[in-house]
Amino acid sequence: MRPAGKPRRLLAVVLPAAVSFALASCNAEPEAVKAESRPVRAVTTENRIAGDDIVLTGHVEAQNEASYGFRIGGRIVERLVNVGDRVRQGQVLARLDPQNEQNALRSAQAALAAARAQLNQASNAYDRQRQLLSRGFTTRAQYEQAEQANLTARSQVEDAEAQVRIAQDRLGFTELKADAAGTVTQRRAEPGEVVQPGQPIVIVARQNGRDAVFDVPAQMLQTAPGDPEIRISLTNDPSVTAIGRVREIAPQADAVTRTFAVRVGIDNPPEAMRLGSTVVGRVMVETGPVIEIPASALTRIDGQPAVWVVDPDKNTVALRQVTVDRFTPAAVAVSSGLKPAEIVVTAGVQALHPGQQVRLLGAQP
To answer: CusB-like beta-barrel domain location, by residue (predicted)?
Structure first.
């Protein structure tokens, strides 16, 4: 029989060795996990000139509108155009009752005929006195009197001729004519009304150009470029487009909206952009250099936007706070916090921690 004490000593020797092997195995497993690199996707940052699309809604107006009115007063007997009618140069738009002006013209013509008869009589008397004076059969005083009567009669004829021309002009003023082709946009008087000189009768939009008019806030005017190219499209048919440039900015803000009316001249306006059509204007305003990264790269630190930046030498990541300038559905524009040529993690950001080893699956420029 074996002594009872020896197996106990052998067990005491074996147990510490097994425990030590097990502890060594446990310590080795975390080291292996810690050394393992996590695969991530990343992009390389670069500066870009960012811009914002400013979109405004406006309407189409004529570049020039003429308000036509009679140069004399009277009663309208005929208005020959309506709203929407196209007119040509020289077309009659409306007429006044011409009876008074016709009578004035006939009176002026009669006065001219009388003046010419007096001139003929005075001219004959002057010729006789001139011949008699050369022969010595009349006095110098009578000759000078006949000469003065001739000059007076000639002046009266010139005055009568001027009165006839004035009467003819006034008769012509009873017809209101368009001085350029265009489209009637408003009518301000109806037949039978008695109007005053210069009172608007019809308003015609001339066909020498069209404007897109927008109400623009003052702050937007300050940040807009000097001579931007504006893309204009119809709201009910965006396929109808045109290009325009700012032609005029109102010097004073609207009393109600506090906005400034900006007129944009449309280059070669399509036929579909009729007067009064509602249009949309778009202009790109540069906001300076920014760095755009995919939206999936964005995370948070202390409630602020942040991204994971890869150290290319150690292949470790660090969390860095950034300032976001604007958001788009697929990307974010970062104005500060990143530099060009840095590597930013775009996929796998939820499972990272500071100083973690990573393995790049693809750095995209």
So the answer is: 214-280
